[in-house]
């Protein structure tokens, strides 16, 4: 066990966990932020995507000991009132079916738009291919990303 | 308006007397349950101080807000939005004034609280409408008494009651208290379809805002004071069982509270197919956090041994049956051999029309093709999990299940508690697809909580989830067509089977359209457990049949849509046999609609495949377009035409149909579970391929037949046929027909 002070959604959070514990479980079990989802644990599904500084990462692959003072942003902290342009576009297009994968999709999409405000279809595919949606909302996700990109510009 | 007796759903409309008159103050986070947009308009409006329960489906606040209960499990099919829409429409209330809550399991109030068979809407259609209409009537009665005017002079519109002659009017909230004391009417008038104001117009997902902001919604998100986390170890292969457990090392791991074996069913317990699991004895690791129990699981010393063959008495919808599970460690190679061997013998004849043998003997040409598909894992994105808190005399269960009602008796039996001491509540569910019809994980969670004497959340890892069984069965089918010298189809023969069930629907199209028809089947027993997977059996046979018909149409030199329409015309005008279980006119209707909407007759720049199928009382036709990009076939567009009767929430219905299309292409193309020595060779998404963003169709268009028929199934029907449309379009694009799913493993591979 070891003590870590983490910067999560702009707040400082202390946790006492085994250094090997992936951020995913630190967030879900210890910080009680359950918006970040478990889907595979092996970097294959993207359900656990969060931002480390501004980059989308798979939180199931990042041991708490490797985070240091980098800023962690989860779906709960993406915007204050749930009104990030990507979140708004998701609601406008009514993307979710079961909804389970969508936090990860939104975190991947918002990181993409941050570094590339008007991505092409194939850039969207490349950025999003690591996020599985078992319900098959892919065409709506693409539409929502384009909607958000349009609203950003 | 239609007059309808309320007695069918009457028990739901009898007030809960403990609440009668008193109203009820409930605290819950109101803004969180709002849709975007609604939040702003409602923010200025306070929550009611009192709620008045009108019936089991709805309660009205003194300020006019209405809470509508959504009785069925929400697995992504949108019932939590669309079922309350039906109530709200009959109630005549503004949708912005509606708050939706997930109802608990309550067999006294609700019927068919099941997400299965695409039946949520169709089986509750009348009850939901009655719930709204009954409440509307009681509000009118209350107003009539208050104003001393005849009830039939009162209008109810958008949450307002009014009496034109006297100029009186009042909001529902003002009459809610009095209405809650009104007699439940013996019969009520339902709206005419032309009067619907909410049904048929798109409303956004009521949980949308919570989903996009990551609020706790799902079973895996459940947190409780003092809650422990549990994980399970089950045998590494089918045909194995627990021999001995040495938990010493695991128990010493950090955060671990206990490790023990649990047994679900005694041998003499009459279980149903929905209770069954391949692994009756499993090892539970209970601890303080998910990561800790996952780590401790690796430190378990468990000896597994080969299991003997077993024969289990089961009941299924009241029918008793005996299911045999042979001993042994099975493999995909031996499965294939067994299937080929059985398919080469005479099967069980299920239907025979005319003289098929003679027709084949006299045929100028015979086309014979065989099709296969592998086992599939449901792989809901949210793995199996459940919360249970079992005390001496009570059990609380909370989590994702498609069949709370069917699981309750098994849990009662295991815990030794009466049914009424068990409460089951449902969370939103991260996918279902049939997997959560089989609630062994609920029984496991209850057993663990009872033994650990603590509230426990059981969580499966993806590997546990994918290797547990309850798979889509593996199937095999051979189709034969007899053609005469003019290439007319004179007979059709289908022989099919699977492990452990046959996918045959002998009375579906093209049965009824052919003078000579023979359908046979067979089955093979296995110790690998299987279960319903979105559109069971149809999810294979539709693709096989629709691919085969494409080849027959080609041999006959006919346009594939025209060819199908000719067969349907025959089934309509001069049907063969008595038991045809489809309506040829509605079948033809979706084909005609998809032909029009896809510009089938005029568009020439794509490689196109068509398919049509009937299941869950609905009809779906699809046209799938492929273009070659860098020598790879890429699905550009899928056009879908659906006849599922009245569509409650059109945009959400389209979303579900789009999902079916992506799901169908994905599974036909990429997914498989294969076995070696009884063990699945794929246990996570590195080896088990699911369709991804770049592989999804670029565009999906969905059209509904507008015929005003009461709703029929929608969650499943768009899934099976697209596999045929895909195979047929691939043939046009690459010149190769694909017979064996997943198509990606066909040699040479078609894509990357
Ligand atoms: S849970 Fe991290 S990628 Fe799947
Ligand atoms: S919406 Fe269900 S997994 Fe994506």
TrEMBL record, chain A:
<keyword id="KW-0479">Metal-binding</keyword>
<keyword id="KW-0411">Iron-sulfur</keyword>
<dbReference type="GO" id="GO:0046872">
    <property type="term" value="F:metal ion binding"/>
</dbReference>
<dbReference type="GO" id="GO:0016491">
    <property type="term" value="F:oxidoreductase activity"/>
</dbReference>
<dbReference type="InterPro" id="IPR002888">
    <property type="entry name" value="2Fe-2S-bd"/>
</dbReference>
<dbReference type="InterPro" id="IPR001041">
    <property type="entry name" value="2Fe-2S_ferredoxin-type"/>
</dbReference>
<feature type="domain" description="2Fe-2S ferredoxin-type">
    <location>
        <begin position="2"/>
        <end position="78"/>
    </location>
</feature>
<dbReference type="Pfam" id="PF01799">
    <property type="entry name" value="Fer2_2"/>
</dbReference>
<keyword id="KW-0408">Iron</keyword>
<protein>
    <submittedName>
        <fullName>Isoquinoline 1-oxidoreductase alpha subunit</fullName>
    </submittedName>
</protein>
<dbReference type="InterPro" id="IPR006058">
    <property type="entry name" value="2Fe2S_fd_BS"/>
</dbReference>
<dbReference type="InterPro" id="IPR012675">
    <property type="entry name" value="Beta-grasp_dom_sf"/>
</dbReference>
<keyword id="KW-0560">Oxidoreductase</keyword>
<dbReference type="InterPro" id="IPR036884">
    <property type="entry name" value="2Fe-2S-bd_dom_sf"/>
</dbReference>
<dbReference type="InterPro" id="IPR036010">
    <property type="entry name" value="2Fe-2S_ferredoxin-like_sf"/>
</dbReference>
<dbReference type="Pfam" id="PF00111">
    <property type="entry name" value="Fer2"/>
</dbReference>
<keyword id="KW-0001">2Fe-2S</keyword>
<dbReference type="GO" id="GO:0051537">
    <property type="term" value="F:2 iron, 2 sulfur cluster binding"/>
</dbReference>
<dbReference type="InterPro" id="IPR051452">
    <property type="entry name" value="Diverse_Oxidoreductases"/>
</dbReference>
TrEMBL record, chain B:
<protein>
    <submittedName>
        <fullName>Isoquinoline 1-oxidoreductase beta subunit</fullName>
    </submittedName>
</protein>
<dbReference type="InterPro" id="IPR006311">
    <property type="entry name" value="TAT_signal"/>
</dbReference>
<dbReference type="InterPro" id="IPR008274">
    <property type="entry name" value="AldOxase/xan_DH_MoCoBD1"/>
</dbReference>
<dbReference type="InterPro" id="IPR012368">
    <property type="entry name" value="OxRdtase_Mopterin-bd_su_IorB"/>
</dbReference>
<dbReference type="InterPro" id="IPR046867">
    <property type="entry name" value="AldOxase/xan_DH_MoCoBD2"/>
</dbReference>
<dbReference type="Pfam" id="PF20256">
    <property type="entry name" value="MoCoBD_2"/>
</dbReference>
<dbReference type="GO" id="GO:0016491">
    <property type="term" value="F:oxidoreductase activity"/>
</dbReference>
<dbReference type="InterPro" id="IPR000674">
    <property type="entry name" value="Ald_Oxase/Xan_DH_a/b"/>
</dbReference>
<dbReference type="InterPro" id="IPR036856">
    <property type="entry name" value="Ald_Oxase/Xan_DH_a/b_sf"/>
</dbReference>
<dbReference type="InterPro" id="IPR052516">
    <property type="entry name" value="N-heterocyclic_Hydroxylase"/>
</dbReference>
<dbReference type="InterPro" id="IPR037165">
    <property type="entry name" value="AldOxase/xan_DH_Mopterin-bd_sf"/>
</dbReference>
<feature type="domain" description="Aldehyde oxidase/xanthine dehydrogenase a/b hammerhead">
    <location>
        <begin position="213"/>
        <end position="308"/>
    </location>
</feature>
<dbReference type="Pfam" id="PF02738">
    <property type="entry name" value="MoCoBD_1"/>
</dbReference>
